[in-house]
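[step 3/7] fold_predict: job queued, chain A
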Amino acid sequence: MRIDANSIVDVESFHSVFTTAFGFPSFYGRNMDAWIDCLSYLDDPSSGMTTVHVDSGQMLSLVIDHAQDFKLRQPDLFSALVECAAFVNWRRVEAGQAPVLALAFHA
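[step 4/7] structure written:
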């Protein structure tokens, strides 16, 4: 999955970009807690949290294009992305599940 970080200019556009890319549900809360919740279920299609799925035990590679510029323009949002992606995996590991999300970027 590729995300064009040039499309992210603020918190609202961050959530819009990810909602479109991942097909988050209509009740998506447009905050980082909700982002974590949705991406924690990438291997569970029955959850209805995202329309993008991976097989159980597999990881989704999330490639952030233009990450260096994104980090310069929106350092807090860039940090939140990295921290929340890590939290998705930590939460799953704590629950005895495999990590499900890998970030790839050049910043």
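[step 5/7] annotate
The radius of gyration is 13 Å.
Strands lie at 2-4, 60-65, 101-104.
exit 0
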